[in-house]
Each structure stands twice: as C-alpha cells, then as structure tokens.
Design brief:
- With 288 residues, this protein is an all-alpha fold.
- The chain has a single domain, classed as CHAD domain (Alpha solenoid).
- It is built from ten helices and no strands.
- Helix 3 crosses helix 8, helix 7 packs antiparallel against helix 8 and helix 8 packs antiparallel against helix 9.
Length: 288
C-alpha cells in the first residue's frame, strides 16, 4: 500500500459519509449535520496535511469548496449546541430564583437562528456549486491526482507529514501561551489540534495502535479546548440576549447568572486544555 492509498482511503470514507447523509441533512435529521460537518473537516485536514502527495491546484480547489460547504453546515449545528448548553446550565440555577422568561427567550432566539441557518444550508445544497463539490470529491477519490514524485512513496512517508501538522500545533500553542487568555489564539491552537487528531486517525490502518494513541491524545486536547471556546461563545451570546431582555423590560439576572456559570468553567477548561496539549506534544512521534 502506498502513502497516497492510505490518505485516499480515508478521504473515501469521508466522501461516503457526506453523500450518505445528504438527504438527512436536508431533512434536518438528528446528528446528520454534525456527522457531515465532521466528515468535511476531516477531509480538509487530510488534504492540507498530506498535500505533498497530490497536485497542489486540485487540493487547493477542493479544500476551498469543502470550506464553503462546512460554513453552511456549521451555523445550524452551532445553534443546536448552544441551545442545549444554555438550557442545561439554566436547569442548574436555583429554582426559587425569579429570572423571568429566560428559557423562552433563549429557546425562541436559537430556534430561529437554527431555522434560518438550516434554510440557508438547504438552499446552498440545491445549487450547482454544491453538486460540483460532491463531484470534485468523488473524482478525487476515484482517480487521485497523485504527484508523479509521490507515486512510489510507501507508508513510511506519512509520519513525516503528520509531524508537520504537530509542529504547527506547537507553534500555535507557543503563540497562544504568550498572551495567556487570548481566546482567538487558543481557538487556532484547537483547530490545529483537530487536524493532528484527524490525520492521526487517518493513519490507524497503516500504523495501528501507535496512531490510535496519538489520535486519542489529540482528541483530549480538542475536547478541553472546545469546552473553553464554548464558554467564550456562550458568554458573548448571553451578553447580547441580556441587552435585548433589558430593552424589552425583562429581568436580566438569569443571563448574568448564566454568564457567571460560563466564566466559572473557563479557567478549568483552559487549564485542562493546556495540560492535554503538553501531554500530546510530549508524545513520541509516529515512526514506521
């Protein structure tokens, strides 16, 4: 098996998920948008990390189009996640407190956001551009545009390419650590960690448990830093909704209490994320 074969097999799995979930995405079936979004992200990460194996123009064009589709998938999913998070947190607040119609306002606002975002997603999937994305991905895995210089490369070439993705995470982590709590920089580190995770997963068929251990370590990073990013998003959203509630003559104590919950989670999630990053970066690199 060649290096390109391993990557193309992984891309084919993601293409199958995207194709197989398309009708469910249109119908807004449970988990369909999430699974399609993850498959799109996995595809983009693999294309970026292993781009040296393929013709650069084809990789760039496909990644750009997958990014367009991922953007449309992201908005409805983000609204779902935020609604579940905030309503769950609201249930933990004292029942005797008088917070006003917080749950009703949050539910109505996020349901509306989700509905509009899903309608936009459906509209995008009815366009020739979406059909072309699917066709590009199908052509890529059916007739991979492998560079002539990469055709003879065996699987032993893959760990070095994964190392580059890990080195990128290291640089992003160092940059984020310089400022301590810059949410944008930690978010960038998390995105780099996701790429390292997905590309470690891609190598499991060729490298077995060693690649699986790397993927699991990077998953711990993405989970912890994902929680940190969720607190940032939730705080900003709650602040906006508190202003709207105030303008409507409603009490804002509930929103402030929820913001306090998010702030209470933030320090711990960042601490856990940084510890997970250190642990993942300290692991021995994958070797043939």
């Amino acid at each position: 098996m060649s290096a390109a074969d391993v990557v193309v097999d992984y891309l084919r799995q993601q293409a199958d998920v995207i194709a197989g979930r398309a009708e469910d995405v249109l119908a807004d079936a449970p988990d369909a948008v999430h699974r399609s979004r993850v498959a799109t992200r996995r595809s983009r990460s693999a294309l970026r990390t292993f781009t040296a194996l393929f013709r650069k123009r084809r990789v760039r064009e496909l990644r750009d189009e997958l990014a367009w589709h991922a953007d449309h998938l992201g908005a409805p999913r983000d609204a779902e996640v935020l609604k579940e998070r905030l309503l769950t947190a609201l249930d933990t607040l004292p029942a005797e407190a008088s917070f006003g119609p917080v749950a009703e306002r949050l539910s109505a606002s996020l349901d509306d956001t989700h509905a509009r975002a899903h309608a936009s997603l459906v509209e995008s999937m009815r366009t020739p551009r979406y059909a072309d994305v699917r066709a590009q991905l199908a052509r890529f895995v059916a007739d991979p545009p492998v560079r002539g210089s990469a055709r003879s490369l065996g699987v032993e070439a893959l760990p070095g390419l994964l190392d580059r993705a890990v080195d990128r995470v290291r640089r992003l982590t160092e940059r984020a650590a310089e400022t301590g709590e810059d949410a944008h920089r930690w978010h960038e580190a998390r995105k780099g960690a996701k790429a390292a995770r997905y590309c470690s997963e891609a190598l499991v068929p060729a490298f077995g448990d060693d690649a699986r251990a790397l993927a699991e370590a990077w998953e711990r990073v993405t989970e912890a830093l994902g929680e940190y990013q969720d607190t940032v998003v939730a705080e900003a959203y709650l602040a906006t909704e508190a202003v709207r509630a105030h303008e409507a003559g409603e009490p804002t104590d509930g929103y402030l209490a929820l913001i306090a919950v998010e702030l209470g989670l933030r320090d711990d999630s960042l601490r856990l994320g940084r510890a997970a990053l250190d642990a993942a970066l300290d692991l021995a690199p994958l070797r043939p």
